[in-house]
Amino acid sequence: MKTNQIMVRKFLGHDIRQNHIGGYFNLTDFSKIANEFRKQNGLSKKQTAHYVELQSTKEFMTELAHEEDVLVKDLWLSKRGKNGGTWVHPIVFIDVAMWFNPKLKVKVLKWVYDELISARDEGGESYKTLMSELTQTFPEISKNPIWYKRISRTIYKICGLKKDDSDRWNKATVEQLKKRDKVHEQLLLLKDTQTNIGDLLVYVYNHNTKPQNLV
Question: Is residue 39 scored above 90 in pLDDT?
């Protein structure tokens, strides 16, 4: 079972927490930022409790819960402790942003979209570096081009992408793209511990897919 890690992301110069599993955002963090944004634009403060009370919100949450195959209460969670506060589904997060202010929703959408593009670009560059390093360490890669496909296949299988989809990385989520970078780092870090590329691929694949090794 994967550990639910908390990521801290910057939005308009402030921190917003997001959990690793499910991608839920901390609405408590966002509300402070959103109300500061409203204040800077000469608008009054808003309380998220009012958003929940709206009939349109109730209808929206019902439809979203149906699409996601979850209970409505699972879209909006209240927690205590170190990472307490209100945590909401990513799509609810965007809808709340629209409710706070249409301009803010635009900024949120661009923020989410820009990170996705950035993750794809960074992954492409790190793959080039990876292949350059691996071909120097393992001469058999250059001698037998099939290894390029095997390396690529190992990486996308670890990231949970489909074998028969040639456009797989363009359809990948941010988390899958970040996972790709981590796999690249592992291959580079461990390349000198194995005598051939085949053993390296098997080791890294097993390390990432066996339940007892998942973190």
Answer: yes
Q: Which residues pair with 26 in a beta bridge?
A: 87
Question: What is the chain's mean pLDDT, rounded?
Answer: 85
CA 167 to chain centre: 18
Reported as a single tens digit per residue, the pLDDT across 168-194 is 776 777 778 888 888 999 999 999 999
Domain boundaries, the chain: 6-100, 110-213
Give the amino acid at 203: Y
Helix/strand/coil (H, E, C) string of the chain?
A: CCCCCEEEEEECCEEEEEECCCCCEEHHHHHHHHHHHHHHCCCCCCCHHHHHHCHHHHHHHHHHHHHHCCCHHHHEEEECCCCCEEEECHHHHHHHHHHHCHHHHHHHHHHHHHHHHHHHHHHHHHHHHHHHHHHHHCCHHHHCCHHHHHHHHHHHHHCCCCCCCCCHHHCCCHHHHHHHHHHHHHHHHHHHHCCCHHHHHHHHHHHHHCHHHCC
Distance CA 197, CA 155 (A): 13
**What is the average per-residue pLDDT within 75-100?**
89
pTM confidence score: 0.55
* pLDDT-derived band at 4, boundaries 50, 70, 90: low
Spatial separation of the C-alpha atoms in residues 82 and 215, rounded to whole Å: 20
Residues 186, 129 contacting (CB under 8 angstroms):
no
Contact (CB, 8 A) for 34 and 99: no
